[in-house]
Amino acid sequence: MRGRIMRYSKLFGKTIKDTPKDAILVSHTLLYRAGFIRESTAGRYYLLPLGIRVHDKIKKITKEGMDKAGAQEVVTPILHPKYLWEETNRTSSVGFELMTIKDRNKFEFVLGGTAEEMLVDLVRKFQISYKDLPFNLYQFSSKFRDEMRTRGGLLRLREFVMKDAYSFHATEEEFKKEYQSMWEIYTRIFDRLGLKTIVVESDNGYIGGEYCHEFVVESEAGESKFFTTKDGSYAAHEEVAKFQRDQKNVGEAEKPVQEVEAVRGTTMEDGVKLHGLPLWQQIKDVLFVDEKGRFILAIIRGDYEVNEIKLMHLVKAYQLRHGTDEEIRQKINSEPGFISPVGIKEIIEKDVKLVVVADTSLRTIKNAYGGANKKHKDRLNMNIDRDYASDLEGDIALAKEGYLSLEGKPFFAKKGIEVGNIFQLGFHYSAKMHDANFVDEKGKAKPYYMGCYGIGLARTMATIVEVYHDDKGIVWPEAVAPFQVHLIHLGGVHSARLAGASAKRATSEVREIAEEVYKKLQEEGVEVLWDDRGNVSAGEKFADADLIGIPIRLVISSKTEEKIEWKERTKSESELLTPLQVLQRLSSRTED
RNA sequence: CGGGGUGUAGUUCAUCGGCAGAACGCACGGUUCGGGACCGUGAAGCAGGAGGUCCAAUUCCUCUCACCCCGACCA
Fold first, then answer.
1. C1’ B37 / CA A535, Å
2. DSSP letter at A206?
3. Are the folds of A17-73+114-223+415-466 and A483-591 the same?
4. How far apart are CA A217 and CA A222, in angstroms?
5. Does domain A258-394 have CATH number 2.60.40.1180?
6. Which of A173, A309, A349, A508 has minimal CB crowding within 10 Å?
7. Closest residue (CA to C1') to nucleotide B72 in the complex
């Protein structure tokens, strides 16, 4: 534990008045101005004494939560042997953000950005039996991610401390209990940190697995876009949100297909204008190419957009890019802006692998129109099953605000900061890595079922500031404040003299009394920052106290006579208390 | 990686071909003393880096690096 007390005159890291020009977000500005952080290079920050105190408290609360949930703390090396990442083939799938380093023997390491392989490697060093399972191992360690772009001070870093946990189970049922337990513990941890989180269904990204949830704090500063219903019964990230397709003209009789001249541009609007038909009746065709070079034609109702994440999952691809105009012409033998699923398999080049993926929305329309795989030719009255078919059919549509959830409730779009997440990993890692097994009751080796769980500490710290601040500065919740008490004494030879020496204290005495109070608070175990500067005006001390944002401000001056002024950062009024009352109040607060 | 922007004192910014400036901050002295007080003095800069044009470049041109913002990714 760090020292409980500090004199401001000795505190490394001063407050500043000017707003740094590069700071856009409140959290960045305030943490910088108040002397909690300084930047090293993009996405890498120094935590100053005030900053590390807050960081430590967040860590402590996180740790208490994890321990309470029965997880056990470990430490893994930051340099991961690269062969481990090769074992799961993640060197190629996440290569864009991995950083590598070689030792003097040219042995290659990866700077750890997440530690699934390391934990599996650790666990497989032991003979795990079903009797050992389940268990959950966690650590606090620096993570390195060579992010393409950093953002907003501490919100998105290239180097940060993360609490990451990895759980190992014999069965899926067993895992689900842990997942639920982590869900609850996370909610409680963030609650203690003063953050109200929304649990949002989201995409796994490069971590792998089948499902996961983000813990999001609603904020305009956030990067996560998600949808919720008014009652909160459903919350899902934009990438995965499921919604109802409304029925359009399903009752209409199927008309014969007709090929027509269509001298038009290549956009959806051009089609609407030319034929005078609604956008939803048009078929949207989007060509993608995956990492294996497969062509994927996504077809969807014209008023919807393709969700690439959903599409990737459906076709089991790792990466998608849009097909180029040349590819459309030379490989598919179609025409940009005029692609059609009708007869497309017959016209493509022989060496081309094409997967046609249809969104379920195509079942809500009849007699659709769209291109005819030739320039300036369109086709009218296309109907699924009769005129065209897909290799895969499913949900590949992007949700939007106002769409209805599967329960029929309208979506509201929200933005938030993702402070933590929980992942189902299943056999994703244990299947790929050798010997990632446990022995079951019958003595047979089986892969273990896994989950993982992360919380970013610095991001959480910034998020707290995003939520708790006012125009004067930070307003730390008590649980994470760098100190509990900000003690100020005000000099004033003059005012003391003017007020008459008998009842009032002289300046030198005020400082002595402050020092006594400071020592008394120390004895009582109160964390206190004493602004002991003698040459600074009252206004400056107050402004600094407001900026730093410690919950309780105690003022001693010639005006307070035998008492001490008590002011809470969250309130505008103050009151005069006797020293005894101050101590009583402080002790009652710490008991809460 | 694509698009946009910024690099001049610790910080925020002026100067925009002709001796490098201000405010805040910092140091020292003095006056103040309950909401960022005032006066004086002082220290602080190879104008991000390299190259070019010019009698002369912080200023114009080229390249490069760093940082910020918007997009594709994430704790």
1. 12
2. G
3. no
4. 8
5. no
6. A173
7. A148
The contacts of residue A252 (CB under 8 Å, 6+ apart) are A366, A367
User: pLDDT per residue over A362-420, tens digit each?
Assistant: 999 999 999 999 999 999 999 999 999 999 999 999 999 999 999 999 999 999 999 99
| 8 Å CB contact between A418 and A460 | no
Rounded to an integer, what is the distance from CA A191 to the centroid of its chain? 16
Cβ of A149 < 7 Å from strand B?
yes
Window 522-561 of chain A: CB closer than 7 A to strand B? 535, 537-540, 542-547, 555, 557-560
* Rounded-to-integer distance, Cα A581 and Cα A61, Å: 29
Nucleic strand B near CB of residue A145 (< 7 Å): yes
pLDDT at res. A96: 47
Which nucleotide lies at the shortest CA–C1' distance from A560? Answer: B34
Asked whether residue A514's C-beta has any atom of DNA/RNA strand B within 7 A, the reply is no
CATH 3.40.50.10090 fits A17-73+114-223+415-466, yes or no: no
A535 CA from B38 C1′ (Å): 14
Which pLDDT score is estimated for A8?
Answer: 95
Query: In sequence order, which ranges of A382-450 are alpha helices (DSSP H)?
Result: none
Yes or no: domain A483-591 corresponds to CATH 3.40.50.720: no
Does residue A206 reach within 7 angstroms of strand B, measured from its CB? Answer: yes
The answer to whether the CB of A579 falls within 8 A of the CB of A564 is yes
Q: What is the DSSP string of A288-334?
A: EEETT--EEEEEEETTS-B-HHHHHHHHT-S-EEEPPHHHHHHTS--
**Residue A451 CB in 7 A reach of strand B:** no
| Strand B and A20 CB separated by under 7 Å | yes
Condensed to tens digits (0 to 9), the pLDDT of residues A320-345 reads 888 888 889 999 999 999 999 999 99
- Distance of alpha carbon A36 from alpha carbon A212, whole angstroms: 33
Tell which strand B nucleotides have any atom below 7 Å from a protein Cβ. Answer: 1-2, 6, 10-13, 24-26, 32-37, 66-75
A428-469 pLDDT tens trace: 999 999 999 999 999 999 999 999 999 999 999 999 999 999
Beta pairing class for A469-470 and A473-474: antiparallel
A85 in Cβ contact with A117 (< 8 Å): yes
> What is the rounded distance in angstroms from the CA atom of residue A567 to the CA atom of residue A575?
7
* Rounded CA separation A36/A40 (Å): 13
The answer to whether A146 CB sits below 7 Å from nucleic acid chain B is no
